[in-house]
């Protein structure tokens, strides 16, 4: 069956979120937030803090494989950290050539490297050559930095360097996250390489999923913002693919997830930063869920954690009362 991958989203899809979303079902693989590699080695504790699943080993608490993503421009340092991650339990390594952050790009990381296919080849080759053949080495790229002229060249460079697969986000860096996603460009890339290509970008529902696969020609799809907006999306897609009765999440189910997420964040972050994480998630949900919009309006100015707890608990009670 076609696979669904959970996309890496910096500052959003951390281990806490990965565990919640993979527990729902439908997600086959996760890719971590990028770990930025510079000229200095990172201690193992930093890798384990970012990817606690390495102790599982290499899986979420629900048994879904978690691929470690690195970002940088130094082939030797990336290869070194790939080896360290594998020694700690990583099942695969992904290389980020898609991050649009100005700060990251300023230091020759992420999507800006799409102007340099030779550098991309050197990075992928160095990481691939540093690991045993049973460890997956993949890459994620956008269609380009400022334009799409080197899209095929970059994909072919990644393939020639020995990557196992390639995820393509169907926009350039300058296009950011503005619609539309250019799925037809993913097809061009897919037809230019032999390695498996995964489509990514603007999949918000079943219809988007079908259209993305049809236009891109890809069997497998990576979803990011769509799964944050609708945590049950991967599950309902898999149910439809199997021909099962579609049983999605109702608002009470989502409220339980939000409360669990909120409680976990309190264990991770200082109190002033906790409420912001919940608001960030609701902000992603609210364009596609009227109840999330209503809750967001209620809590957007709340910073006191006791008040936040009361509001969330009340919403769960109301949601349970509204169930048929």
Distance between the termini: 33 Å
Structural class: alpha/beta
Largest sheet: 8 strands, parallel, barrel
Number of distinct beta strands = 9
The proportion of strand residues reads 5-15%
The CATH topology of the largest domain corresponds to TIM Barrel
> What is the count of structural domains?
2
DSSP helix fraction: 40-55%
- Biggest sheet strand line-up: 1-2-4-5-6-7-8-9
Return the average pLDDT rounded to an integer: 96
Backbone CA Rg: 20 Å
Counting H and I runs of at least 4 residues, what is the number of helices?
14
The ordered H/E elements are: EHEEHEHEHHEHEHEHEHHHHHH
Return the CATH architecture of the largest domain. Answer: Alpha-Beta Barrel
**What is the CATH homologous superfamily assignment of the largest domain?**
Aldolase class I
Dominant shape: globular
Low-confidence stretches: none
Q: What oligomeric state do these chains adopt?
A: single chain
**What is the CATH top level name of the largest domain?**
Alpha Beta
Topology:
Layout: E1 4-6, H1 15-24, E2 29-31, E3 35-36, H2 44-50, E4 66-71, H3 75-88, E5 92-97, H4 102-106, H5 117-130, E6 136-144, H6 151-160, E7 165-172, H7 183-190, E8 197-200, H8 206-216, E9 221-223, H9 225-229, H10 233-242, H11 251-268, H12 271-285, H13 290-299, H14 305-322
Parallel strand pairs: 1-2, 1-9, 2-4, 3-4, 4-5, 5-6, 6-7, 7-8, 8-9
Helix pairs in contact: 3-5, 5-6, 7-8, 11-12, 11-14, 12-13
Q: Could you describe the 3D structure shown?
A:
This protein starts with a strand and ends with a helix. It has helices at residues 15-24, 44-50, 75-88, 102-106, 117-130, 151-160, 183-190, 206-216, 225-229, 233-242, 251-268, 271-285, 290-299, 305-322, and strands at residues 4-6, 29-31, 35-36, 66-71, 92-97, 136-144, 165-172, 197-200, 221-223. The longest helix is centred in the last third of the chain and has 18 residues, at 251-268. The protein has 14 helices and 9 strands. The chain folds into 2 domains: 4-242, Aldolase class I (TIM Barrel, Alpha-Beta Barrel); 251-322, no CATH class. It is 48% helix and 14% strand. The protein is an alpha/beta fold. β4 (66-71), α3 and β5 form a beta-alpha-beta unit. The model has no long low-confidence stretch (mean pLDDT 96).
